[in-house]
């Protein structure tokens, strides 16, 4: 059996607002309500990010989305149109630049709850063959 990640829970202050922002930026379906207390973002046919509202402290999480060149252009255009600052380095300053160090393109942005999102066209995290 192949193991696949099915979903992950993302804590936030406002689940509907967080799901809406990410879903619209990625250009994928989302819902303000899902099963139980979640607002899902349907990232792909096999993976969902389930946002859950909380008043408790929560750790900052990092999620990376591998996309095609065309999807990268479309998502970056939506990030720019929304006025969201982005950067070329995971811990760097906002430079509004695209990183091309690993044979593709990548950018990082931080959402209002401080979670760190990354988008890239070529993965640098694959296990060597």
UniProtKB/TrEMBL annotation:
TM spans (from-to): none
SUPFAM superfamilies assigned to the protein according to its UniProt record, in alphabetical order: Glyoxalase/Bleomycin resistance protein/Dihydroxybiphenyl dioxygenase
CDD domains hit by this protein: ChaP_like
Biological source species: Undibacterium terreum
InterPro entries, A to Z: Glyas_Bleomycin-R_OHBP_Dase, VOC_core
Residue ranges of every copy of the VOC domain listed in the record: 4-122
Official protein name in the record: VOC domain-containing protein
